[in-house]
Write a structure and sequence with these properties.
Layout: H1 21-28, E1 37-41, H2 47-55, E2 63-67, E3 73-74, E4 80-81, E5 88-95, H3 108-123, E6 129-131, E7 135-140, E8 143-155, E9 158-166, H4 192-212, H5 222-229, E10 236-241, E11 245-254, E12 260-263, E13 269-272, E14 276-279
Parallel strand pairs: 1-2
Antiparallel strand pairs: 2-5, 3-4, 5-9, 6-7, 7-8, 8-9, 10-11, 10-14, 11-12, 12-13
Helix pairs in contact: 1-4, 3-4, 3-5
Length: 288
Protein backbone atom coordinates (compact mmCIF):
# COMPACT_ATOMS: atom_id res chain seq x y z
CA UNK A 1 0.00 0.00 0.00
CA UNK A 2 1.44 3.37 -1.02
CA UNK A 3 1.06 6.44 1.23
CA UNK A 4 -1.57 7.86 -1.13
CA UNK A 5 -3.56 4.63 -0.81
CA UNK A 6 -3.54 4.61 2.96
CA UNK A 7 -6.91 5.24 4.59
CA UNK A 8 -7.34 8.75 6.00
CA UNK A 9 -8.52 9.27 9.55
CA UNK A 10 -9.20 12.25 11.78
CA UNK A 11 -5.45 12.61 12.44
CA UNK A 12 -4.31 12.31 8.79
CA UNK A 13 -3.51 16.04 8.45
CA UNK A 14 -1.47 16.95 11.51
CA UNK A 15 -1.75 20.64 10.59
CA UNK A 16 -5.50 20.29 11.06
CA UNK A 17 -6.14 18.43 14.32
CA UNK A 18 -9.71 17.67 15.41
CA UNK A 19 -11.48 19.93 17.88
CA UNK A 20 -11.20 19.06 21.56
CA UNK A 21 -14.87 18.88 22.57
CA UNK A 22 -14.40 18.60 26.37
CA UNK A 23 -12.09 21.62 26.33
CA UNK A 24 -14.57 23.65 24.31
CA UNK A 25 -17.40 22.76 26.66
CA UNK A 26 -15.32 23.68 29.71
CA UNK A 27 -14.48 27.03 28.15
CA UNK A 28 -17.94 27.99 26.87
CA UNK A 29 -20.69 26.30 28.88
CA UNK A 30 -21.23 27.98 32.24
CA UNK A 31 -24.20 28.51 34.57
CA UNK A 32 -26.13 31.62 33.57
CA UNK A 33 -24.31 31.92 30.23
CA UNK A 34 -25.88 31.95 26.79
CA UNK A 35 -24.40 28.68 25.54
CA UNK A 36 -26.26 25.68 26.93
CA UNK A 37 -24.89 22.78 24.87
CA UNK A 38 -22.14 22.20 22.33
CA UNK A 39 -21.75 19.21 20.04
CA UNK A 40 -19.19 18.51 17.34
CA UNK A 41 -19.93 16.10 14.50
CA UNK A 42 -17.34 14.67 12.12
CA UNK A 43 -19.29 15.41 8.95
CA UNK A 44 -22.72 16.79 8.16
CA UNK A 45 -24.63 18.21 5.24
CA UNK A 46 -25.42 21.57 6.85
CA UNK A 47 -25.31 22.59 10.50
CA UNK A 48 -28.02 25.18 9.82
CA UNK A 49 -30.36 22.60 8.31
CA UNK A 50 -29.73 20.17 11.16
CA UNK A 51 -30.45 22.75 13.87
CA UNK A 52 -33.51 24.05 12.02
CA UNK A 53 -34.99 20.54 11.96
CA UNK A 54 -34.35 20.15 15.69
CA UNK A 55 -35.81 23.59 16.43
CA UNK A 56 -39.10 22.53 14.87
CA UNK A 57 -39.52 20.05 17.74
CA UNK A 58 -38.28 22.45 20.41
CA UNK A 59 -34.69 23.38 21.19
CA UNK A 60 -32.95 25.16 24.05
CA UNK A 61 -31.60 28.59 23.30
CA UNK A 62 -27.83 28.58 23.18
CA UNK A 63 -27.49 25.22 21.42
CA UNK A 64 -24.27 25.10 19.38
CA UNK A 65 -23.59 22.58 16.61
CA UNK A 66 -20.12 22.42 15.05
CA UNK A 67 -18.99 20.29 12.12
CA UNK A 68 -15.46 19.26 11.28
CA UNK A 69 -16.66 19.07 7.67
CA UNK A 70 -19.79 20.25 5.83
CA UNK A 71 -20.77 18.56 2.60
CA UNK A 72 -23.77 20.75 1.78
CA UNK A 73 -23.13 24.02 3.56
CA UNK A 74 -25.36 26.85 2.40
CA UNK A 75 -24.91 30.56 1.94
CA UNK A 76 -27.29 33.29 0.87
CA UNK A 77 -29.22 32.77 -2.37
CA UNK A 78 -28.76 28.99 -1.95
CA UNK A 79 -25.06 29.15 -2.77
CA UNK A 80 -22.99 26.20 -1.61
CA UNK A 81 -20.11 26.35 0.86
CA UNK A 82 -17.58 23.52 0.92
CA UNK A 83 -14.05 23.20 2.27
CA UNK A 84 -11.62 20.45 3.28
CA UNK A 85 -12.25 18.74 6.61
CA UNK A 86 -11.01 20.67 9.66
CA UNK A 87 -9.83 23.58 7.48
CA UNK A 88 -12.27 26.08 8.96
CA UNK A 89 -15.03 26.82 11.41
CA UNK A 90 -18.44 25.51 10.36
CA UNK A 91 -21.06 25.99 13.05
CA UNK A 92 -24.59 27.10 13.83
CA UNK A 93 -26.25 28.41 16.98
CA UNK A 94 -29.88 28.62 18.01
CA UNK A 95 -31.09 31.95 19.42
CA UNK A 96 -34.55 32.70 20.78
CA UNK A 97 -34.90 36.45 21.42
CA UNK A 98 -38.61 36.24 22.23
CA UNK A 99 -38.61 39.48 24.22
CA UNK A 100 -37.27 41.44 21.22
CA UNK A 101 -39.82 42.63 18.63
CA UNK A 102 -39.67 40.27 15.65
CA UNK A 103 -39.15 43.14 13.21
CA UNK A 104 -35.74 43.71 14.83
CA UNK A 105 -34.54 40.12 14.40
CA UNK A 106 -33.12 41.07 11.01
CA UNK A 107 -30.17 42.52 12.89
CA UNK A 108 -29.00 39.06 14.00
CA UNK A 109 -26.78 38.27 10.97
CA UNK A 110 -25.25 41.76 11.18
CA UNK A 111 -24.75 41.30 14.93
CA UNK A 112 -23.02 37.99 14.26
CA UNK A 113 -20.74 39.72 11.77
CA UNK A 114 -19.71 42.31 14.35
CA UNK A 115 -19.12 39.55 16.89
CA UNK A 116 -17.02 37.54 14.43
CA UNK A 117 -14.89 40.53 13.46
CA UNK A 118 -14.31 41.42 17.10
CA UNK A 119 -13.50 37.85 18.10
CA UNK A 120 -11.17 37.24 15.17
CA UNK A 121 -9.26 40.44 15.81
CA UNK A 122 -8.51 39.12 19.29
CA UNK A 123 -8.04 35.45 18.50
CA UNK A 124 -6.34 35.58 15.10
CA UNK A 125 -4.90 39.07 14.98
CA UNK A 126 -6.60 39.64 11.63
CA UNK A 127 -8.62 42.70 10.65
CA UNK A 128 -11.92 41.38 9.33
CA UNK A 129 -14.18 43.74 7.41
CA UNK A 130 -17.92 43.29 6.94
CA UNK A 131 -19.55 43.27 3.54
CA UNK A 132 -23.27 43.97 3.85
CA UNK A 133 -25.20 41.96 4.72
CA UNK A 134 -23.33 38.79 5.69
CA UNK A 135 -19.81 38.36 4.31
CA UNK A 136 -16.52 38.45 6.20
CA UNK A 137 -13.62 39.95 4.26
CA UNK A 138 -9.87 39.86 4.85
CA UNK A 139 -7.06 41.47 2.89
CA UNK A 140 -4.53 39.32 1.04
CA UNK A 141 -1.75 41.03 -0.93
CA UNK A 142 -3.63 44.32 -0.74
CA UNK A 143 -6.89 42.90 -2.11
CA UNK A 144 -10.13 42.30 -0.23
CA UNK A 145 -11.29 38.69 -0.41
CA UNK A 146 -14.08 36.69 1.16
CA UNK A 147 -13.05 34.45 4.05
CA UNK A 148 -16.44 33.66 5.51
CA UNK A 149 -20.16 34.11 5.45
CA UNK A 150 -23.17 34.13 7.75
CA UNK A 151 -26.63 32.72 7.20
CA UNK A 152 -29.62 33.34 9.50
CA UNK A 153 -33.02 31.70 9.12
CA UNK A 154 -36.17 31.50 11.20
CA UNK A 155 -36.69 28.13 12.85
CA UNK A 156 -39.11 27.04 15.56
CA UNK A 157 -39.61 29.95 17.96
CA UNK A 158 -36.26 31.52 17.15
CA UNK A 159 -33.45 31.89 14.66
CA UNK A 160 -30.64 29.60 13.56
CA UNK A 161 -27.48 31.55 12.74
CA UNK A 162 -24.71 29.73 10.92
CA UNK A 163 -21.18 30.69 10.01
CA UNK A 164 -18.61 29.25 7.63
CA UNK A 165 -15.08 30.60 7.96
CA UNK A 166 -11.96 29.56 6.06
CA UNK A 167 -9.16 29.24 8.60
CA UNK A 168 -6.23 27.23 7.22
CA UNK A 169 -7.06 26.88 3.52
CA UNK A 170 -3.99 26.99 1.31
CA UNK A 171 -3.96 28.94 -1.93
CA UNK A 172 -4.45 25.82 -4.06
CA UNK A 173 -7.50 24.81 -1.99
CA UNK A 174 -9.47 28.03 -2.44
CA UNK A 175 -12.81 27.57 -4.21
CA UNK A 176 -12.53 30.82 -6.18
CA UNK A 177 -9.97 33.57 -6.91
CA UNK A 178 -11.97 35.97 -4.73
CA UNK A 179 -11.81 33.65 -1.70
CA UNK A 180 -9.27 33.71 1.13
CA UNK A 181 -8.49 32.26 4.52
CA UNK A 182 -7.21 33.61 7.82
CA UNK A 183 -3.89 31.85 7.19
CA UNK A 184 -3.42 33.59 3.85
CA UNK A 185 -4.29 36.91 5.54
CA UNK A 186 -1.40 36.45 7.97
CA UNK A 187 -3.24 35.23 11.07
CA UNK A 188 -1.05 34.94 14.15
CA UNK A 189 -3.07 31.89 15.18
CA UNK A 190 -5.12 29.38 13.21
CA UNK A 191 -5.98 27.26 16.24
CA UNK A 192 -9.66 26.58 15.66
CA UNK A 193 -10.50 26.05 19.32
CA UNK A 194 -9.07 29.45 20.21
CA UNK A 195 -10.95 31.10 17.35
CA UNK A 196 -14.26 29.36 18.07
CA UNK A 197 -14.12 30.35 21.73
CA UNK A 198 -13.29 33.94 20.79
CA UNK A 199 -16.15 34.23 18.29
CA UNK A 200 -18.76 32.59 20.54
CA UNK A 201 -17.77 34.69 23.55
CA UNK A 202 -17.99 37.83 21.42
CA UNK A 203 -21.37 36.72 20.07
CA UNK A 204 -22.63 36.18 23.62
CA UNK A 205 -21.50 39.71 24.55
CA UNK A 206 -23.11 41.48 21.59
CA UNK A 207 -26.30 39.41 21.76
CA UNK A 208 -26.63 40.24 25.45
CA UNK A 209 -26.22 43.97 24.81
CA UNK A 210 -28.73 43.88 21.94
CA UNK A 211 -31.34 42.02 23.98
CA UNK A 212 -30.81 44.31 26.96
CA UNK A 213 -31.65 47.23 24.66
CA UNK A 214 -34.81 45.45 23.47
CA UNK A 215 -33.22 44.90 20.07
CA UNK A 216 -32.54 48.62 19.52
CA UNK A 217 -29.42 48.60 17.36
CA UNK A 218 -28.58 52.24 18.08
CA UNK A 219 -29.03 52.03 21.85
CA UNK A 220 -26.99 48.83 22.09
CA UNK A 221 -24.10 50.28 20.07
CA UNK A 222 -24.57 47.65 17.38
CA UNK A 223 -25.49 50.04 14.57
CA UNK A 224 -22.41 52.18 15.18
CA UNK A 225 -20.12 49.13 15.48
CA UNK A 226 -21.43 47.60 12.28
CA UNK A 227 -21.04 50.84 10.33
CA UNK A 228 -17.49 51.27 11.65
CA UNK A 229 -16.47 47.83 10.40
CA UNK A 230 -18.49 47.77 7.16
CA UNK A 231 -16.33 47.79 4.03
CA UNK A 232 -19.41 48.42 1.87
CA UNK A 233 -19.98 51.96 3.13
CA UNK A 234 -18.39 54.71 1.07
CA UNK A 235 -18.05 52.39 -1.92
CA UNK A 236 -19.75 52.34 -5.28
CA UNK A 237 -21.65 49.07 -5.48
CA UNK A 238 -23.78 47.16 -7.90
CA UNK A 239 -26.95 45.90 -6.25
CA UNK A 240 -28.92 43.06 -7.81
CA UNK A 241 -32.35 43.68 -6.31
CA UNK A 242 -35.53 41.62 -6.18
CA UNK A 243 -37.46 41.72 -9.44
CA UNK A 244 -34.29 41.46 -11.54
CA UNK A 245 -33.55 45.14 -11.00
CA UNK A 246 -29.93 46.33 -10.95
CA UNK A 247 -28.78 49.54 -9.31
CA UNK A 248 -25.30 51.08 -9.33
CA UNK A 249 -24.95 53.61 -6.53
CA UNK A 250 -22.88 54.67 -3.55
CA UNK A 251 -23.48 52.91 -0.23
CA UNK A 252 -23.79 55.70 2.31
CA UNK A 253 -25.31 54.35 5.53
CA UNK A 254 -26.85 51.50 7.52
CA UNK A 255 -30.23 52.55 8.88
CA UNK A 256 -31.93 51.57 12.14
CA UNK A 257 -33.50 48.52 10.51
CA UNK A 258 -30.15 47.21 9.25
CA UNK A 259 -30.88 48.22 5.66
CA UNK A 260 -28.18 49.46 3.32
CA UNK A 261 -28.85 53.01 2.10
CA UNK A 262 -27.78 53.63 -1.49
CA UNK A 263 -27.41 57.10 -2.95
CA UNK A 264 -27.96 57.37 -6.70
CA UNK A 265 -26.45 59.89 -9.12
CA UNK A 266 -29.71 61.86 -9.17
CA UNK A 267 -29.54 62.39 -5.41
CA UNK A 268 -32.18 59.87 -4.39
CA UNK A 269 -31.57 57.56 -1.45
CA UNK A 270 -32.91 54.03 -1.60
CA UNK A 271 -32.95 51.60 1.34
CA UNK A 272 -32.10 48.02 0.43
CA UNK A 273 -33.21 45.21 2.72
CA UNK A 274 -32.33 42.30 0.43
CA UNK A 275 -30.13 41.88 -2.60
CA UNK A 276 -26.79 40.72 -3.93
CA UNK A 277 -24.13 43.43 -3.50
CA UNK A 278 -20.91 43.65 -5.51
CA UNK A 279 -18.15 46.04 -4.49
CA UNK A 280 -16.95 47.73 -7.66
CA UNK A 281 -13.30 48.61 -8.07
CA UNK A 282 -12.12 51.03 -5.46
CA UNK A 283 -10.77 50.68 -1.95
CA UNK A 284 -8.67 47.52 -1.73
CA UNK A 285 -8.91 46.84 -5.45
CA UNK A 286 -10.74 44.07 -7.20
CA UNK A 287 -14.35 43.02 -7.22
CA UNK A 288 -15.94 41.37 -4.20
Amino acid sequence: MTPSDAPRNRWSDLDRPPLNVPALRRGLLRPGGLWTSLDVVETIGSTNSALARRAADGLDEGTVLVAEEQTAGRGRLDRTWTAPARSGLFFSVYLEPGDVPAERWGWLPLLTGVAAATGLARGAGVDTALKWPNDLLVTVDGVERKAGGILAERAGDGVVVGMGLNVSLRAEELPAPTAASLALAGAVSTDRETLLRAVLRSLEHWYGQWRAADGDAAASGLQEAYAAGCATLGRTVRAQLPGDRTLVAEAVAIDGDGRLILSTDDGLQEPVSAGDIVHLRGVGGGLV
